[in-house]
């Protein structure tokens, strides 16, 4: 823990556990020769090239598009509209950002109110929606965002500046007409030459799910391609339970992620070109699908998931 500089006695047990699982001295951190990232880029580039050659327009891949094309392709695109449940996550994350970046120590509700004020001032999308809502709706958003922020403050140690925190930083890797991009919730640390140091974190609620693991691996690959040294750890932080899912980054993890990216790029290219029809693949996304009442496969999947007790109502 001394590597992270926070006295364990000042932390509650969950905060202490979070710190212990993420901290590492320089001697404990893995080293990745430059040839690793070079090999990964060459491999991915050579496998994406035939796909790029067939494209009529640029192809953008992020975690949402990967999850969608590798999941159910029949699920219609939703016309996105803000609501109180959707706004709580964005406001809560903005409040977490302020809690990390502010040099003073305001109370959580002050941070939530500042987050709402900052978003409204931007006059974009969520800010415009917030500016049109009545006091009851704002109170609901405020309460739920405050719960999310307090969960973070209770389960994470105070983030120190020397940990190099970055919230929602953009990661990009370009391959001709194909772009990979991601925005992890939080990154801590940084590489020192060939020594891995970065920890990539996403905040979630609900149960641990394979898609959360896949999202982080995608971020890890893009960051490796971007700076040439892989991150050290991939972490999903479940704020409501205080649990962490932690995976050490290895060359094998990154190679497997390349396979997933190539698969998704090929599927998306043939789908958008009209070379094939969308495939129906039921999964957890059936819970929110607009056509779930008319989809026998989706209904059967949800019944089985409820019977097995694996269906989580969290969004």
Give the topology:
Blueprint: H1 13-22, H2 34-54, E1 59-61, H3 63-69, H4 84-101, H5 108-122, H6 126-131, H7 135-155, E2 166-167, E3 171-175, E4 178-182, E5 186-188, E6 199-204, H8 210-227, E7 233-238, E8 243-248, H9 251-272, H10 296-308
Parallel strand pairs: 1-4, 6-7
Antiparallel strand pairs: 2-5, 3-4, 5-6, 7-8
Helix pairs in contact: 2-9, 3-9, 4-5, 4-7, 5-7, 8-9
Keywords:
5-stranded mixed β-sheet; 10 helices; 8 strands; alpha/beta; 3-stranded mixed β-sheet; 315 residues; Lambda Exonuclease, Chain A; 3 domains
Structure explained in plain terms:
The protein has 315 residues and is α/β, with parallel strands linked by helices. The protein has 3 domains: 8-75 and 161-272, Alpha-Beta Complex (Lambda Exonuclease, Chain A); 84-155, no CATH class; 282-315, no CATH class. It has helices spanning 13-22, 34-54, 63-69, 84-101, 108-122, 126-131, 135-155, 210-227, 251-272, 296-308, and strands at residues 59-61, 166-167, 171-175, 178-182, 186-188, 199-204, 233-238, 243-248. The strands form 2 sheets. It has a 5-stranded mixed sheet, with helices on both faces. It has a 3-stranded mixed sheet with strand order 1-4-3.
């Amino acid at each position: 823990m001394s590597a992270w500089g926070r006295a364990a006695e000042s932390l509650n047990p969950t905060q202490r556990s979070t710190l212990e699982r993420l901290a590492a001295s320089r001697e404990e951190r893995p080293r990745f020769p430059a040839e690793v990232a070079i090999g990964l880029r060459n491999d991915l580039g050579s496998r994406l090239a035939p796909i790029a050659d067939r494209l009529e327009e640029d192809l953008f891949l992020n975690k949402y598009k990967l999850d969608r094309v590798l999941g159910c392709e029949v699920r219609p695109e939703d016309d996105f509209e803000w609501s109180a449940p959707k706004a709580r996550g964005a406001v809560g994350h903005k409040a977490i950002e302020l809690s990390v970046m502010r040099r003073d120590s305001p109370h959580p509700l002050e941070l939530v109110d500042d987050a709402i004020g900052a978003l409204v001032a931007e006059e974009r999308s969520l800010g415009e929606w917030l500016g049109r809502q009545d006091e009851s709706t704002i109170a609901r958003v405020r309460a739920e965002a405050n719960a999310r922020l307090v969960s973070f403050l209770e389960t994470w140690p105070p983030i120190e500046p020397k940990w190099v925190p970055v919230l929602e930083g953009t990661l990009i890797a370009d391959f001709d007409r194909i772009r990979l991009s991601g925005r992890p919730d939080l990154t801590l640390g940084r590489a020192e030459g060939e020594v891995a140091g970065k920890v990539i974190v996403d905040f979630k609620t609900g149960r641990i799910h394979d898609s959360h693991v896949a999202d982080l691996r995608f971020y890890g690959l893009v960051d490796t391609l971007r700076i040439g040294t892989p991150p050290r750890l991939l972490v999903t932080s479940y704020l409501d339970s205080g649990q962490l899912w932690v995976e050490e980054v290895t060359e094998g993890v990154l190679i497997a992620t390349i396979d997933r990216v190539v698969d998704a790029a090929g599927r998306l290219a043939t789908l958008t070109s009209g070379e094939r029809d969308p495939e129906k693949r039921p999964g957890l996304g059936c819970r929110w699908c607009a056509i779930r009442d008319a989809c026998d496969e989706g209904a059967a999947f949800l019944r089985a998931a409820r019977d097995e007790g694996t269906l989580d109502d969290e969004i």
